[in-house]
Specification:
By secondary structure, this protein is of the alpha+beta class. The protein is 16% helix and 39% strand. It is globular, with a radius of gyration of 21 Å.
Length: 267
Amino acid sequence: MACNTSGCISRYCFTLGKFQEKLVMKLYNSLIQEELPEKNLDENKTYKSVFRVTKFIELNQNADLVGTADGLVYSFLYDDLMTRPKKIVSHFGIIKSLEKSPFSQDVYLTTGCDCNINIWVSDIFLEPVITLSVGKQIEKAIWSRTCSTIIASIIDNCIQIWDLSVTKYEPIFVQKMPKPDRKCTGLEFTADGKHLCVSDISGEVIVYVLSNISSHDKDDEQYNLVYAIAKIIYGTKYLPSVLIKERKEFAEVFIKLDYEKYGRKFS
């Protein structure tokens, strides 16, 4: 599956030694009903401007996500493309980041032209479960490849590292770029997660060493992510009850948090 800037979602199949493209859906801004009584209902329907798509990811085995220049994220079912996609109001302005966690098929983050990094669980909510607010526009945000609770972001030509297991209110590490006149263009964790590579408009790449950040095996990291999210939203009115109902892994963690809160040993 792929999506282009004109809002076309296509499926590519490799048959007879070559790829064949099939258009499966096209995102439109809005539907306009024209008052033309001489035409039937279907012919009366015309569509307004096409969404400009900026990001596309395969969230899990059933759903894909599309981010647009209007700050929206659309979720649509891979096996039911005829169903209208679910619209999520995500950010103000263009969707700049749409990143799935390497340790969960359901957890992803988004950034736009506002001052927030939004973290979502699947498409069961129309609002983020966690919002990291920084007061300045965020250019990009990515997940660590080895530590599930670590997020790196570019903000006002500064590199910021967040750890959801520590706090959601402020980053654990902030580093200004050594040459402030050169705008950051990208960032990426190395495969071992111990370094962060940052590029600027001049083509220069700076490599930062990340110390005091430990990683575990994949199963532990998946649990750490779920536990960090659950701990942040624990005690809120709406989110925990839905996650307990919809996601088994969150239900188990909320039970543990209940035991921890009331001073009882969990077993």
